[in-house]
Each structure stands twice: as structure tokens, then as C-alpha cells.
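Hi, here's the filled form for the chain we discussed.

Project: internal
Contact: R.S.
Residues: 353
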Amino acid sequence: MKFKILFLSALLIMLLTQKAFGVVNQPPSRELKVQVDDAALYVRIVGNLESRNVLIGINGGPGQSSHYMVSLEQLASKDFAVVTYDQRGTGRSTTPSGGYTLLDHVADIEAIRKAIGAEKVHIMGHSWGGIVAMFYATVHPQMVSSIMLMGSGPPSKKMSLPGQAKLAQRIRQLMQLGIIPKSLPPNISELLEAIDGLQQGRDMAGIELNGAPEFLVGSTVEAGARDKSPELILDEMNRLSQAGTRFFITPPLFDLAAIAPVWKRVNQDTTRVIPTVLLLKSLGMARYIARNVSHTFIPDTLIDRIQNAPDKVRECLDIASETIRALKKEGFGGVLIATIGWEDKLPEILKRI
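And the returned structure, exactly as it came back:
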């Protein structure tokens, strides 16, 4: 079975063209709930399902609702239907008692396809949604007319790590040979130069301002990534620091040993490293990140803790609190807590630290 792989630019051009020319009379939306085992999925439909062109949009995450996918509905017409849905455990869909594997997500899409009566569907997946789309197409190739991927990646860590490791090694070699410059990419350099000019009281055209704003410039850095050498990370941090960056935010951190090769070699008097503490919401979420997110390491012992805990939500909160306390003891000046919808849990976590 051959699939059509459509470039995202075509989709964006369609959306922008419709907006530019003021397309009106968008078909009304419909909503339904699709039951899959003990999860009830919220599904939103715009357009004509009886047409042969039905698009299912799969949002990124995991852990995010489909609210930002509504712009796809501009494509809907009497000849085209757009279907979006909140993935299990997010948004207006209910949380299952268990089951967040990729095959569970594949089963959700298949249940939606059957519920809307579409013989075949086009699939657009953004980020994590692209991985789900690829798995669905692998399991149900006869049901897929085309696939569109936006900002997605390989469907497994095993497939992505070798390529990333070779790329990192090659970049270091080319930098050493002087073929790739060690300077920052033009867009980052221009941004930092603009910030520096504003702090000196000039706008981007060089015109003097009435006063000078102050900025505290930060950047993300893949400290703790298993597929990127500490030397490459430190080199990137040094270049950004020399250009005015004063703090760095890491990917989600669950093991202090993963960041130690970078953290111990940073000049902490001039550069601050702010670890991200991600609130795990379930055993399935922890397992998926451990298997598929290359820049985040979750130890097996931590996954076992969640699996064996009678109250998994409380165990996840315990893990976050313990991580923050350990980082504070290690000497980090602060953390970024990524709640992903668990903002209401913050007071409880803060009380524990």
C-alpha cells in the first residue's frame, strides 16, 4: 500500500488563501462522543462527511487538547470534512482507567473513523500527533488516503537515536575543520544583537529611544540529552553566553546524574541553569516519554515506582516534589514546573518542598 505524503506548505497555503480572500459560510460544527473501552472521546466535525474527503487532525502533546486545531476547519465545505478530537485523558474526553499506549491511540482513531462512517480518511498529525498518525497508517493502511506530518519525527527512540548521534558527531568534526562556523545561526545572532541595541537605548533602525529597556535573556539547552555530547552542549552554551544569554532552561529532568556532565562544568557565577520539572500524570505518560523522547531520561526505577503505587497520582506528585528538593540541595537557584493541565496540583507540590 502506497501513501501520498503531502507537504504541509500546501495545507498552509490553502488556509491562508481562504483567509486572505474572505471565504465565508463555513459549515456548522457538530459534536459527538465516541466510546472506546472506558474512555469517551470528544469529537468535533465540520463539513460534509458524505464526501470522499475526510480529514482527521491529530494534535500534539501528549497531554494537550485539540483546541488549537480548529483553524483546520477553514478547509471544511460541502466537498470536504474536517474532524478533530480530544485525545484520551485530555480536554473534553474522559480519562481511561488504564491504557495510553500508541496502540490505544490507534484504536481511538479507528473508532472515530467508524463512528463518522468514513471509508477512508486523510490524516494530519502535528508533533506527537504525527507519530500517532504514522502508527495508525501502519496498522490500518487500507483506511488511509494520505498523511500530512507537521513538526513530527521518527515513531520511536530506537529509530531516531542513531541518526541524531551521527549528526552530532559530524557537526563536531566539521566545526573542528572550520567548515561549519562556530558562530550562532543568523536568526539567533540578529535577535541577540537587537536585544543588545535596545538595552543601549536604540531601536533596530538605530534610532535613539527615550530610555533603555532591560532584558534578562534566556535560552533552552538540551542538557541531559542522551544523544548529544556534553562538549557540543557546552560549546553551544558558551556561544550563547558570549552573545548575552544569562540563563538556560533544560528539558524535563528526572535524574540528576543525566545533567551532571554539563552542570558541573558551567560557570555558575555568570550562567544560571534552570531545570524543568515535568509533572507526570500517569504510568502511560512516563513509559511513552522513556521510550520515545530522546532528550528526556526517565529511570526504570521511577517507572516501577508509579506502576507499583496504589495511588499513582500521589506518587507522581511525590516524584515531582522529591526532584525539586534534590535540585535545590544540589545548588540550582530555581526550577521550571511544567504542569500540563495540573495547575491545581501546584499548591500541594509547593507545600512539600
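Let me know if anything looks off before we file it.
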